[in-house]
Design a protein that fits this description.
The chain is an all-beta fold. The protein is built from no helices and 4 strands. A two-stranded antiparallel ribbon has the order 1-2. Strands 3-4 form a two-stranded antiparallel ribbon. β3 and β4 form a beta hairpin. The radius of gyration is 10 Å and the shape is globular. The two termini are about 15 Å apart. The mean pLDDT is about 85.
Amino acid sequence: MVETPPELKGGTATKRPKPATLNTGIEIMVPEYITTGEKILVNTTTGEFGGRAD
């Protein structure tokens, strides 16, 4: 993930999504606890966040 707004306090306790731009230029919605630079999984069928990558 290339860019996403910083986590807000209490973000891990809620499931509010925030926009994130991937290195391909695609923008998807991710949970607030995800930070810039993390590797994530994206469902290629739906284009939705699938979880953190190992």
